[in-house]
Amino acid sequence: MDLHQLRGAVAVADHGSFTRAAAVLHVSQPSLSYAISRLETELRASLFVRLPRQVVPTAAGQTFLVHARAALEQADCARAAVSAAEHPVSGRVDLVHIRTATAVATRMIRDFRDRHPGAVCVVHEPAGDTEIVSGLRSGRHDVGIMRSDHVPRDLLAVDAGTERWGAVFAEDQAPARATIGLETLAEHPLVVPGAYSSMRAGFDEVFSQARLTPDVAAECTDIHMLLSLVAAGVGATLLPDSLARTRPDITYRTITPRIAHGLSVVRKAGSTTPTIDAFCAIPAVPTRSRKRNAETAVIKNIPRQGD
What we know:
By secondary structure, the chain is an alpha/beta fold. It has 3 domains: 3-81, Arc Repressor Mutant, subunit A (Orthogonal Bundle); 88-160 and 265-295, Periplasmic binding protein-like II (D-Maltodextrin-Binding Protein, domain 2), CATH 3.40.190.10; 163-260, D-Maltodextrin-Binding Protein, domain 2. It is 44% helix and 24% strand. Helix 1 packs across helix 2 (18-25). The two termini are 32 Å apart. Residues 1-58 form the HTH lysR-type domain. Belongs to the LysR transcriptional regulatory family.
């Protein structure tokens, strides 16, 4: 087996589809299927179950994926370490991201600084997908982190995992069950993100697809104020996990079916410097998160614009 086969298996697990995995890896679907078939033959085990609408790992596949992810991460670290030793990185990289990608951005900046202490990362205010695309095309920003299904075809994109969304309530208003349906959340007054924000776009999309009409009690552009309003009992809300689990005075509830949006690290084709290349080489998804993504179905996986 080789790293290409490992990357193929991980991509199939993460995206739940040979077609989508092949698109992300920029290979043909038949060649990816053949590579996985060869891998299964070598291992003498079936790694995936092909369902009508999804591909999921078998028990043997889940065991294999743990080690495959670790091997890929070690290979990435080895490559980055050699590159850093041979070509020390300095300079700056301008980063902009949607608010729901705050956790991914924070982790990448930390790892980037650990590997390249001579470089500087300039982080701009969170923006919407449209503003990110405009900033990358104009050269105002070097790198963006945005919704995968909103990435236009003229930008280069690397998978950054998924961001799950959950329901948040005041402590004395939360349903007793740890897992609820979206219709249960819709029965409560809601505090919604500000209009035209990336979070509001995701919020509205989820309710629209479920054919539910939110009962809006308040609208707030500031995330800290929004969470304070929830804690005060003004209403519940729907937020990405990285934001929903940040305060002890609010109660989180898992939504089923699972709501999650894919994220991508993006940059303009041809826009490259050693510093930008070094930042984009940082793995956006840690091993544990990759494993969780592989084990849980994602209901949001829309092709990129132009497909």
